[in-house]
Structure to design on (196 residues):
């Protein structure tokens, strides 16, 4: 649940991915990104925390996905890849995408109220001591960041309505090849792709 930093962090994430050498450890990439000033945050601690967050997410992408993120993807596909990375990095984000967004989309309940986060969080907290121990302030921050991330990834609109996903045929084929189950993270794609 450490996704309480920023939002999708698109520009910085693409730049960190560009700096990454496939054979090197992600810690080396993180250090290089810090040295090259990938983020313009004023405080060193904030820069390090944000870059660590980015590395945690984009390290979930495989080599083909990273290469496409940097070299071939347009902005919309970049947003989709970074949403995918966040869903892979954080179990709660993935569960929110599959148990809330996907289910609401299938039942044509396209509005996504803020309390949908609280309902899922409370249900998960009953079985997870880590979630149960999160303070109300941190919980509110996590909700705020997740909704911002979803808006920036075009998963929801500015007025919190679920949007049908569009990804390029090339990205869709990359996703299907890697893990067809990931299509469920994008409203409408799983149904079109025959995966569920």
């Amino acid at each position: 649940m450490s996704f309480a930093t920023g939002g999708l962090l698109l520009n910085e994430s693409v730049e960190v991915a560009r700096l990454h050498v496939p054979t090197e450890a992600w810690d080396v990439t993180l250090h290089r990104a810090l040295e090259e000033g990938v983020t313009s945050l004023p405080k060193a601690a904030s820069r390090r925390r944000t870059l660590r967050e980015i590395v945690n997410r984009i390290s979930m992408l495989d080599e083909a996905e990273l290469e496409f993120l940097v070299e071939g993807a347009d902005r919309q596909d970049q947003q989709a890849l970074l949403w995918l990375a966040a869903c892979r990095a954080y179990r709660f984000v993935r569960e929110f995408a599959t148990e809330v967004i996907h289910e609401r989309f299938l039942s044509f309940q396209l509005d996504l109220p803020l309390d949908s986060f609280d309902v899922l969080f409370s249900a998960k907290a009953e079985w997870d001591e880590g979630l149960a121990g999160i303070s109300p302030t941190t919980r509110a921050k996590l909700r705020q960041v997740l909704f911002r991330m979803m808006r920036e990834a075009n998963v929801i609109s500015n007025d919190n309505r679920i949007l049908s996903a569009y990804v390029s045929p090339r990205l869709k084929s990359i996703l299907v090849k890697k893990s067809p189950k990931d299509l469920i993270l994008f409203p409408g794609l799983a149904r079109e792709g025959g995966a569920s």
User: Anything to note?
Assistant: Residues 85 and 142 are 17 Å apart (CA to CA). Residues 192-196 have pLDDT under 50 and may be disordered. The radius of gyration is 17 Å.
